[in-house]
Amino acid sequence: MRGLMMGRFQPFHLGHLDLVKQILDQCDEVIIAITSSQFNYLEKDPFTAGERIEMIHDSLKESEINLSRCFIVAIENQFNIATWSSFLKSALPHFDKVYSGNDYVKMLLADSSIDVITPKFLERSQYNASHIRQMIISDDNWQILVPEAVAKFLQKINGKKRLEIISKSDTKPTEH
Length: 176
Ligand SMILES: Nc1ncnc2c1ncn2[C@@H]1O[C@H](COP(=O)(O)OP(=O)(O)OP(=O)(O)O)[C@@H](O)[C@H]1O
Ligand SMILES: NC(=O)c1ccc[n+]([C@@H]2O[C@H](COP(=O)(O)O)[C@@H](O)[C@H]2O)c1
What we know:
Family: Belongs to the archaeal NMN adenylyltransferase family.
Radius of gyration: 16 Å
InterPro entries: Cyt_trans-like, NMN_Atrans_arc, Rossmann-like_a/b/a_fold
Low-confidence stretches: none
Distance between the termini: 35 Å
Shape: globular
Bound molecules: adenosine-5'-triphosphate, beta-nicotinamide ribose monophosphate
Pfam family, one: CTP_transf_like
Structural class: alpha/beta
Strand content: 5-15%
Strand order of the largest sheet: 3-2-1-4-5
CATH class: Alpha Beta
Subcellular location: Cytoplasm
CATH architecture: 3-Layer(aba) Sandwich
Catalytic activity: beta-nicotinamide D-ribonucleotide + ATP + H(+) = diphosphate + NAD(+)
Helix content: 25-40%
């Protein structure tokens, strides 16, 4: 049995890691699909697909999760939303069910007869990536909300500086 979770993971946080563990408790394997992979250096999508792959890989390794049970893949955002679910079937390894709490995604997948499970969420007010990006900019103890590997990686690439520059309105490009 293989479970699929999707997200932009900008950045990957402890809520995401908890979801990986929930899926591995219920399934043999997990597919972690990084969505909007073509977007980067934007306010909602600051990090590249490659950087997000590294953050996720390092976090799983650090948590001693068996990497042979995990696929980490990057997929582009699709222009045609009605055909998104069939795109998922062709772009990803076979999956048996999708873990998502998002009603919009549930509707799209249900319309293609794909099974959707609603996972448990770690406290969403803290564990959400938009909040964490804000905390990084204001130096607000964000490190406790992400795996140590993500904190180290963001330090290494100077993620704070990137977020600061991207969030300045005079330099901001048009968001998708
Ligand atoms: N606190 C959480 N606990 C468990 N799962 C979560 C949590 N937050 C997000 N997820 C899961 O991660 C996926 C979405 O990832 P994504 O990075 O887009 O979320 P996000 O943290 O809400 O990001 P953003 O705030 O940038 O929109 C969803 O499938 C959701 O099920
Ligand atoms: N058109 C598309 O490519 C498309 C459509 C619906 C959802 N998505 C993405 O899939 C992910 C779904 O994540 P959750 O359902 O788990 O919230 C989100 O990152 C969302 O942006 C992409």
